[in-house]
Structure formats: structure tokens, C-alpha cells
Design brief:
Blueprint: E1 11-13, E2 16-19, E3 22-23, H1 24-31, E4 35-39, H2 40-57, E5 62-67, H3 74-82, E6 86-89, H4 92-101, E7 108-110, H5 117-126, E8 130-133, H6 136-152, E9 162-168, E10 190-191, H7 196-206, E11 211-216, H8 227-242, E12 249-251, H9 269-287, E13 293-296, H10 300-303, E14 307-318, E15 324-328, H11 337-341, E16 359-364, E17 373-380, E18 388-391, E19 412-417, E20 420-425, H12 434-437
Parallel strand pairs: 4-19, 5-6, 5-13, 6-7, 7-8, 8-9, 9-10, 9-11, 11-12, 12-13, 15-16
Antiparallel strand pairs: 1-2, 2-3, 4-14, 14-15, 14-18, 16-17, 19-20
Helix pairs in contact: 2-9, 3-4, 5-6, 8-9
The structure holds ligand LLP.
Length: 438
């Protein structure tokens, strides 16, 4: 049994798996599969652990902002807002959902490598906690939009939009290439190496229309080493010192690693939190400046383990070479991660948890692509049509990246509490979707 990958409320009785006291087989029958379930208690406990670790490691002010891209259905967003989190949004859609969910503007910051005029204008109008500027080009574009607004209204300095600069240190972290964002050749951020970052700091500080309050960097996602975060922070402070700039806010982004399989290393959260906190303190000591507000931006770390995907087995067959294929009723339309990054998962049979995994199979979806794997080459207990399968650690970057490929309907998602089930998103009805009827 792989309990360490499951939500904290997972329990097993008579071989049947339950989450928050809800039998997964019963949920699958009631709500149909594919189905995603989120455990409220896991989200709360993981957040509490992160808050505690941060408070113990860092004496200055802090903020935890959830990276909405990991999963942000409106009702899920409301739960997070009620927990007092901030949120990092990257689109007008995420911004509008954040607002509706109850995040106040000073809890929201806007990211994006190519923010539209509409996104920037909305951020200016709401006076967000920060707009994270991603390039010199955007810095000038944003300044022109801010200038326009200030001509209409009052030009007081405190009315200037607060900005951070997203700095690219030129560091390559050990993760899939598509998840690296801090290296020299990335599309994200303002590079230090050729002087653009220094120029951006000077430009922003001299602008009467912008208020530069912070620096940010994000090296990538599913990163298991703390070393590159420390190195990046040292580079950010070296840059700030050279420009005689004191950041009031500082963010090393998110990206901390989550386990998807039992054989993956279990790296304590503190490895990351303590390293980041210590690096910022050491750099501030060295510069003789006050500690900034330290803003962490976890997405996966808060959402992945809380979520479990449920599928029903359909066709099982052998190909000519003897390979065993087990196909389920979802796949790459609700979980693109194996196809996009070669991501590995663990499958369990939630109604027969005691059965040993003796059969070697390719677990695949139902979509018309040979790359539609959920798990290539894994071991399962022998399964047949109608059996239920569960994939732990499915809460982040599944439904938020889901598509209607083959005109599949996006699955329902539930929020589970002891004795309570709330529908976060209903099973999509594609024939009633607005675009279909237009
Ligand atoms: N901050 C920024 C600026 C980001 O771009 C991201 C993720 C995060 C924070 C949160 O990273 P996390 O803590 O969730 O790793 N679809 C990929 C992950 C893409 C991450 C994009 N940016 C995957 O499924 O692995």
C-alpha cells in the first residue's frame, strides 16, 4: 500500500480505500469516472506545516501565495482565500476567479511573460499587491499604461503601481527541460548576465509612474535541490547591492518538489524553507539592510497530494509482443503530464488495496494518441473491465491543464470533508458549452 502518497485522511478497511471517511468506490459510482477528489484536511495540514516552517526559519514578514495555475476552480479558490493565502495569477481568467473567490487585491500578484494590455490595465485598476514585470519591453509598456491612468487621476507617488522585477539568474535546475525557467535561454524574466536586470532596476526606480518594491525569481518546477535557490538569492542581492537598491519584498518563486511514486526521495520541506530563509537573512546582514517581506509561491506543493484521480478500467488486452495494456476512461485530456514531461505516477486499486501488484502493464487512456500513457510499464494487481483505479498526487496541473481533446468532457472534482462532499466543478457537459452553441 502506498499511503505516503495519499491524502492525510486516507484510511483502509477490508481492502477498501476511503478519504475523509468517504469510500472511493461509492464516490465513483455516485459521481461517475473520471473523477477527481480533493481532501480538505490535506490542504490545511500542508499549509500549516509550511507556515510553521517559515515562521520558525524567518524572523521577518512573510506571505504564502498559491500559484493558481496548479488548480483554481472557483470553489477551490474560495477555500484557499478563506485560509488566508495570497495568490499568484497569470491571466485575466485567474485574476477574475481570485477576485470572485474573495482574495483582496493586496493578496494578489500578477505574473506572465506576455501580459496583455487588458491584464495590465485590470491590475492597475485593482492596485494589486504587485505586478511582476517580466521584461524591459513590458516595463516600458506598463509605464505607458500607468502614465495614462495617472493623467486621468492623481499623480501622487503612492498611487504608482507596485512592481517587482522577475530576474533570470541564468541557473539550470535539475528538472524536465519544459519546467526550467531560470536558465540563460528561457523566455521568462529579465537576465542578469547581459545587464538588462540592472538596467530594469535603474529604469523602474527613475520612473515617476512606477513603484519598484521587490525582486522575484523562479527557477523551475518540481525542483528537489535547495542549492540553486540559495545561489539565485545571492545573485539577486549582488544585483541589488550593485544598484544600491533595497528590496522591500523578495520572492524565490515556488517550484518545490512533490513525490509521485514511493521510490522517489522524501525530501523534507525544511530543506527548502530553511535554506531560502537563511540565504535572505545572510544577504541582508551582508548588505546591512532590513529583511524584506519573503513571499513563497508554491503551487504543486499545496495542491498535488490533496488530489486523487479515479478512473474505471475498460479494455484490457495483450499486443502481439505480449505487452499487457490496461485502458481507463480518462487519460491525456485530464492528465497531460506523462505525455508532456514523462511524469511517473503510481496506480492503486482502491477497492482491493490488499492485492499484490503482480501484473506488468502499460496503463493508458482512451485518447487517440500513442503517447496517451498514464503509466508506462508499471505493476498492478490483475484488473478487469469495471475495476476502479486511483492515481495519488493528482491535485496539481491535471485539471488546470485539461483539454477537450477528442471532445472529452472535463471530469468532475469534489472537495471532501468528514461527512461532507462539495462539488468543486461538475462533470462538464460539452453539448451545453457556450462555444459549442455559438
Ligand atoms: N511561481 C511561478 C512564477 C511559476 O511560474 C510557477 C509555476 C510557480 C510559482 C509554482 O510552481 P510549483 O510550486 O507549482 O512547482 N505544468 C508543469 C508545471 C509548470 C509550472 C509553471 N510555473 C507540471 O505539471 O509539472
Amino acid at each position: 500500500m502506498k499511503h505516503e502518497l495519499l491524502p492525510v485522511t486516507a484510511s483502509c478497511s477490508g481492502g477498501r480505500l476511503a478519504i475523509a471517511g468517504h469510500d472511493l468506490g461509492a464516490l465513483a459510482r455516485e459521481f461517475a469516472t473520471p473523477l477527481y477528489v480533493y481532501d480538505g484536511e490535506t490542504v490545511r495540514q500542508d499549509l500549516a506545516a509550511l507556515r510553521q516552517a517559515l515562521a520558525a526559519a524567518y524572523p521577518g514578514p512573510t506571505e504564502i501565495t498559491y500559484a493558481a495555475k496548479a488548480y483554481f476552480a472557483p470553489r477551490f479558490a474560495s477555500k484557499l482565500a478563506a485560509l488566508g493565502l495570497g495568490v499568484d495569477v497569470v491571466s485575466l481568467g485567474e485574476l477574475r476567479v481570485a477576485q470572485r473567490a474573495g482574495f483582496s487585491p493586496e493578496k494578489i500578484h500578477l505574473h506572465g511573460n506576455n501580459k496583455s494590455a487588458a491584464e495590465l490595465r485590470a491590475a492597475l485598476e485593482l492596485n494589486l499587491q504587485a505586478i511582476v514585470v517580466d521584461s524591459l519591453d513590458e516595463l516600458m509598456f506598463l509605464e505607458s499604461l500607468a502614465r495614462e491612468r495617472q493623467h486621468e487621476g492623481s499623480p501622487r507617488p503612492e498611487s504608482c503601481p507596485k512592481i517587482w522585477l522577475r530576474i533570470t539568474p541564468g541557473l539550470t535546475v535539475d528538472t524536465h527541460a519544459y519546467r526550467q525557467t531560470g536558465h540563460h535561454t528561457t523566455k521568462f524574466g529579465i537576465p542578469i548576465a547581459d545587464g538588462q536586470a540592472a538596467e530594469a532596476i535603474r529604469y523602474a526606480r527613475n520612473s515617476p509612474h512606477l513603484n519598484l518594491v521587490g525582486l522575484h525569481t523562479h527557477l523551475g518546477s518540481q525542483v528537489y535541490e535547495a542549492g540553486p535557490y540559495v545561489e539565485a538569492l545571492q545573485m539577486l542581492y549582488a544585483l541589488a547591492r550593485a544598484e544600491n537598491f533595497t528590496p522591500l519584498e523578495l520572492s524565490p518563486g515556488g517550484g518545490w518538489y512533490v513525490r509521485y511514486t514511493s521510490d522517489a526521495p522524501d525530501i523534507p520541506l525544511n530543506t527548502w524553507v530553511q535554506s531560502v530563509a537563511a540565504a535572505v537573512q545572510a544577504e541582508c546582514d551582508r548588505s546591512g539592510i532590513p529583511l524584506p517581506r519573503l513571499v513563497l509561491e508554491p503551487g504543486r506543493w499545496l495542491a498535488a497530494r490533496a488530489g486523487v484521480a479515479l478512473y474505471t478500467v475498460g479494455t484490457c488486452k495483450n499486443s502481439g509482443d505480449g505487452t499487457r495494456w490496461v485502458a481507463v476512461d480518462g487519460g491525456m485530456a485530464d492528465n497531460l503530464r506523462p505525455a508532456l514531461y514523462g511524469a511517473r505516477y503510481t496506480a492503486i486499486v482502491p477497492e482491493r488495496m490488499e492485492d499484490p501488484a503482480t501484473e506488468r502493464v502499460n496503463l493508458v487512456g482512451k485518447f487517440c494518441e500513442s503517447g496517451d500513457f498514464l503509466i508506462e510499464n508499471t505493476y498492478l494487481p490483475p484488473v478487469a473491465r469495471g475495476d476502479l483505479l486511483a492515481l495519488p498526487a493528482s491535485g496539481a496541473y491535471h485539471l488546470s491543464m485539461a483539454s477537450n481533446y477528442n471532445l472529452a468532457e472535463r471530469p468532475a472534482a469534489l472537495w471532501l470533508e468528514e461527512g461532507e462532499i462539495e462539488v468543486l466543478q461538475p462533470h462538464e457537459d460539452i453539448l451545453s458549452a457556450a462555444w459549442w452553441n455559438s
